[in-house]
Amino acid sequence: MKIGYARVSSENQNLARQIEALKKSGVEKIFPEKVSGKSVQNRPELKKMLEFIREKDIVTVLDLDRLGRNAQDITDTINLIQQKEATLDVLSLPSFTDIQDVNLRGLLTNLVFEIYKYTAEEERNKIHARQNQGIQLAKERGEYKGRRRQYSPHGSKRYLYKRVVQMLRDGTNIAQIARSTGVQRRQIYRIKEYALKVGDLGTPKREVNS
Predict the structure, then answer these.
(1) Higher-scoring residue by pLDDT: 205, 123
(2) Which of 7, 65, 84, 103 is most buried by its number of CB atoms within 10 A?
């Protein structure tokens, strides 16, 4: 069976391009993921896929980096796939399926994977180094303001921020807000602290017990 795995790092990103490519390659079942987890345990759809696959299945991804955030993550995931005696097909990399010799095909495939992981890791390290240099330069110039707050009047999650603030104004308790919005309690306390600081909250009503 040909099984696909697609992943983006956040809810705001779109899986459509990956899913379309997987379907065109003949994938029969797709596990779509919208999360930036550091391990298999933090990526529920990847975990489901690894539990689902069987011997001789083909796991297909558009790019190798969909399997992990760094070279070690990718290696660990590939090992888990191989432990199930399934094979990995990466659409953006050369395919050696026409080679009849199984050992040679496996050798060439693993070689390509290792080269890709090395170059991807090097590129990631260079990007981080440039980012750190830019931040340091901005700090020296007094221009660095840090990461923009997501839960704020103008942040990427401003609608959730406004909803949480309104519920706090109404006296709704933290547990009920968490259940209604899906926002973690710890984050709600941070929103509350920030809203009080910037004057969005004022003095909240007394919380109503649930």
Answers:
(1) 123
(2) 7
Q: How confident is the model at residue 102 (pLDDT cuts 50, 70, 90)?
A: low
Place of tokens 């899913």: 19
CB-facing half-sphere around the CA of 12: CA atoms within 13 A: 4
CA distance 77 to 1: 19
Identified catalytic residue from 9, 36, 95, 180: 9
pLDDT band (50, 70, 90) for residue 96? low
pLDDT tens per residue across span 130-156: 878 877 777 777 766 666 778 888 788
Q: What H or E segment, with its residue span, contains residue 141?
A: helix 102-141
How far apart CA 106 and CA 87 sit, in angstroms, is 9
Concerning whether 9 is annotated as a catalytic residue, the answer is yes
Helices 71-83, 44-52: crossing angle, 10 deg rounding: 30
- List residues bridging with 34 in a β-sheet: 8
145: which 2 tokens? 């303001």
Domains annotated on the chain, with CATH: 2-96 (3.40.50.1390), 148-210 (1.10.10.60)
Rounded to whole angstroms, what are the CA distances from 182 to 160, 161, 175?
9, 12, 10
pLDDT at 145: 64
Residue listed under structure tokens 């240099």: 133
* 57 within 8 A of 86, measured Cβ to Cβ: yes
Beta carbons of 5 and 59 less than 8 angstroms apart:
yes
